[in-house]
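Lab notebook, bench 4. We co-purified these components, and the gel suggests they stay together. Before we commit to crystallization screens, I want a quick structural picture of the whole thing.
Request: model the full complex, all chains together.
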Amino acid sequence: MTTDLRDDLRRLVRGTAADYLEIRVEEIEAAQLAYRGRDLETVNRLQDFGGCVRALVRGGWGFSSFNNPDELAERAADAVAAAALAADAGVRLAPVDPAEDDVPLRLGEDPSAVPLAEKRAIFDRYAEIATAHPAVATALLRYGDQRRTTTLATSEGTLIRQARHDVTAYCAVTAGRDGDVQQASFSLGWLNDFRAVRDLEQQVAEVRDQAVAFLDAPYARSGEYPVVLDPVLAGVFVHEAFGHLSEADFVSEDERLRELMKLGKRFGRPHLNIVDGAAVPGLRGSFRYDDEGVPAQRTDLVRDGVLVGRLHSRESAARMGERPTGNARAINYRFPPIVRMTNTFIEPGAASLEDLLADIELGVYARSWYGGMTSFEMFTFSAGEAYMIRDGKVAELVRPVQLSGNLFVTLEQIDGIAGDLEMNQGGGCGKGGQVPLPVSNGSPHVRIARCLVGGRA
Amino acid sequence: MNPERVIELARRSADEAEVFAVESEDTPVHFEGNRLKSVQSRSTSGCALRVIRNGRMGFASSTRSDGEADLVRLALEVAELGAPARFHFPGAAPAPDPGTYDEATARLPVAALLDLGNRAIHELLDGAPELVCEARVDRQVQRVRLLNTAGLDVQYARTSLALGLEGTRVRGTDMLFVGGDDAGCAPDIATDRVVGDALRQYHWAEEPAEAPTGRVPVCFTPVGVAWTLMEPLEAGFNGKFVVQGSSPIAGDLGKQRYDARFSMTDDPLLPMRPASRPCDDEGVPSGRLAMVEAGVIRRFRYDLTAAAQAGVQSTGSAERSLISPPTVGSTNVLVAAGDRTFEQILALMGDGLVIEMVLGAGQGNVIGGEFSGNVLLGYAVRGGRIAGRVKDTIVSGNVHQALSALLAVGSDGRWIGGTLWTPSLCFSELTVARAQGG
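Here is the predicted assembly.
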């Protein structure tokens, strides 16, 4: 972006008739590879330029997005007119200090500097590994990188330019025999660095062998079990089961939800601590400023088992009389920012994995992840890999299971937390049609005393 | 960006080229906490370019208004190392016009969108004052143009109007979500039905109840079919998975795989439906596709790529967005209605489970036809009557197996989300499990 454009933005936001106006202009460059079986299926390049204007007029939001930069002034007028239609919706913004900043992009190995042909050669090799077993019916491999440069200007004087470069790799292997089809997969991500993409042979081979092994594995019997989750799956659990409920935009709209999520309420045993924050550098959910220009922070959500904080945009913070936490994020210029998680994790405890397993007579050890969803009260998440636990030991492999439960019951049911915190970088979170938003989540191994496992009767 | 300029530039260096150009104006209005929250407008314009050069395919897309030359350069760069091109772009062919544009929808003032959302929320609150409502009204006007070096040049315009309504009730830690939706090309949203759906769910969920567990009869309402069964079912018909053999029904063409009461059609030519179109997103003329007739698998879906791999003709099933290359997709899907009223189905079930929404339905082995999830909204059936809402209950099964053991097909077919028409489907038995006193 040129200095000229920044001056234009500054002029435009200053001259507005709205109570608050913000303009976000983005430049996105992306490359993607997709394989089906051993065959390269598609290679894409993408150039995306666009912007959006968000206006607040007498408590109502108007929003307008566009591709043609020549339309900027016109679209700003549209957003103000739209906001006037929505006026008296009671929206207020919590105050923040205006920031002027130009955040440099700190790259490890620059993904844009790696030629497409080299990326292809790397994934040709992975596709070969993924399919190197007679029982493999097919594999799906995807690579993607996306550089997004955002300039944000607000009528309060904020003017921030920042960039990020997301790198993702996905591999799903399908094995089949006699009409039975089983799948195993991984989903990985990195921020601002290509390096790790070069060394995935081992992981691809493991996923392949896993899919084949599922063909011979039995289903777990559906029912309630003590369940031990590995750090990846426990990270998905904390994201789905608790993280979404701590997003204050939803809570702030409903009196009874506010009552339910009152700070000071006990959610778990005293060993449970849950944190979210984008201020840690180098994770997928990390950034310097959110999409409202609020600096990244670290927010304690649960401390010693008690609810102590929640995630806010400026709007939800004002509505609940709390402080913004830097969690207003938009996936791209086509959307206004909404309250989202960043890097969410359960803090490590004192136990070891062996301690967690020791007194379980019959249980399930669930590893890796396939996906997760929440309706606030209820959640469900899928393990990519599962084993029975028998007499305190990890026993036979079973087919992937789905775990579900009631949030309020299950958090209280966490009765063991190990010390081996790991962050999972492969997550893409979906909310309000904005998917996949880069986030990370993590946890040490945890034990849930009782959890509903979906397998077969 | 000018699509003609793109194809002109591409023609100079590529053996074949195709441009998919989209211009759209989206006007979503959003209500939260029972009142209007925001009015938005989203203007999108861009081009996707596919080129074939030396037998390889290149793809790039751009939304830069002056990006024609860069777009061609990127696509040619990709073609250097792209996948082998297995087909030629199709030439011009007469395409039917199902009618997808309604001037009245395009001209609806924002005030009318606001009115639609307000009305839906107030009607729902009249029937259930305890709910906190969210609504989304979205009007879209889209122009698609597809041209290639084989002489194809089609363009069409499409309007759509959609209403989504959701009500939430919180009592202590107990949460209930109810809702409905409708969409069409014309401004004739069935607000009554959307509100009626939400209210029916609200009343049926009034009392808590426990579902029988183990292998029990399970009925999916039309909403339940849409939420839970369609994704794993349709994956089996995807020509990509068929050609690789990863679809569990890949070898079943012409076979009686399902109960004879089950039939399913993909129809892009229904007038004024939001998924209707004169041709698919690769320019192949639209036609009605009878996928399952009386339980016999008749047709799979193919785009040009999958068709070339399978050695068959494209079924006109290509679907794409501006930024992604074409893939196999669906248009308007119709599941044939049966002869049982919903009350008759309940009586047939005796004791069982009725499902509207399942959380995490698409997370399992979808290609294998499996579905599994936490019942977000479902009702226990006791003695042939709805007994109340179940919680802490999970259901799992395989859609291809389940469809061969139908207990009943409802006569209650209707549109869900504007693009799926389905009745209730009741299976003889699926696995249901419940947390003890969860």
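Chain B has two domains: 3-201, 208-231+337-434. Worth comparing against the SEC data before the next meeting. Chain B touches chain A through 83 residues (CB under 8 Å).
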